[in-house]
Amino acid sequence: MNQRKPLDKTVCAMMIVLCLIWSLQQIAVKAVAHNIAPMMQIALRSGAAFVLVTLLMLWRKERFDWSCWRPGAVIGLLFGLEYIGVGEALRRTSAGHTVVFLYTAPVFAAIGLHLKLPSERLSVTQWCGIALSFCGVAYAFWGGASNKSGPAAAAQVSLLGDALALMGGAAWGATTVVIRSTRLSNTAPNQTLLYQLGGAFLLLLPAAVLSGQTYFAPSPLVWASLAYQTFIMSFASLLAWFWLLRHYLASRLGVFTFLTPVMGVILGATLLGEPVEPGFVVGGVGVLMGIMAVSLHTAIDNWSRRIRAS
Question: What are the residue ranges in the chain where pLDDT is below 50?
Fold first, then answer.
């Protein structure tokens, strides 16, 4: 097994670009939602990315391992549920709200792994981070709602939309638990990605049809958005992420992912003119600080011990 390397300047730059790509995901969907339903967008991009990953595996002569199809089907279902939540959230709330609540996934993953694996027991610092995150979620829900200003803001933000984005974060966290606690932990990343993309396509396309979200009014912006979501976000960025995880320290890479929701809120306000309510900002900061405590607990605990020893 290759030794994971520390990060250098090139990798840090790559991670910043990846976070920017991921933060634009919800904005790309929201920007053309009046021409093509968010759920249909995600279904189409997932199906197209599934084909691209399959072709890549065939070109590389990578063998598909059918022995882990059961957990693969489960993560495919969870990935589909995650993006049903995201798609419905983007119809009801802002892209900025959606990205912040979606990125609560590490909190849900930490709780699930605590219950599933003895080696993943939560520390006091992590429990404090979880409590802070949920307090932040509660304040962002109700504090943000009480700070809406005018009908335009009310039209772009709703508690139901925020709750659906949070559901997406819970499904993402559950996906991590399944991958870490089953044979998928030793499966090639491309195959794991295939399960997720295939599950999203098979679940979202019928859901879009059954819910009447099949409208599609082609335009240059629509095609540009779908191309971005398929080739850059769902294919290239995820392959780059898996490559980085194989060669560099995952804990160091994970620190950069906290940039994604921050960038998402800023870009949503800048590009889409979305409202940024003071209550949501306060709650969102609490959520992010809690997630950092959960994910970086070892570094925080070591720092605390050094402070007490000095």
Answer: 1, 147, 149-155
Q: Is 34 helix (H, G, I), strand (E, B) or coil?
A: coil
Residue pair 50/201 in contact (Cβ under 8 Å)? The answer is yes
Residues recorded for the chain? 310
Q: What is the pTM of this model?
A: 0.84
Task: In whole angstroms, give the CA distance from residue 164 to residue 174.
Answer: 15
Q: Is 50 helix (H, G, I), strand (E, B) or coil?
A: helix
Q: For residues 164 and 81, give the distance between their C-alpha atoms in angstroms, rounded to a whole number.
A: 10
With CA atoms as reference, report the closest residue to 175 among 71, 78, 73.
78
- Dihedrals phi, psi of 227, to nearest 5 degrees: -65, -45
Angle CA(161)–CA(163)–CA(168) in degrees, nearest 5? 95
DSSP H helical ranges for the chain? 9-31, 38-60, 69-92, 95-102, 105-116, 124-146, 150-156, 159-181, 189-210, 220-227, 238-247, 250-256, 259-272, 278-295, 297-309
Could you report the per-residue pLDDT of 218-263, keeping only the tens digit for each?
A: 999 999 999 999 999 999 998 888 888 777 766 567 677 788 888 8
Q: Is the dihedral of CA 27, 33, 39, 42 positive or negative?
A: negative
Instruction: Please check whether residue 95 is in contact with residue 195, taking contact to mean a CB–CB distance below 8 angstroms.
Output: no
Compute the distance between CA of residue 93 and CA of residue 81 in angstroms, rounded to an integer: 18
Query: Residue 184 corresponds to which amino acid?
Result: L
Dmax over CA atoms of the chain, in Å, equals 65
Cα–Cα distance for residue pair 14/240, rounded to 1 Å: 9
Q: Say if CB 186 and CB 64 are below 8 A apart.
A: no
pLDDT of residue 231: 95
Token pair in block for residue 88: 């419905």
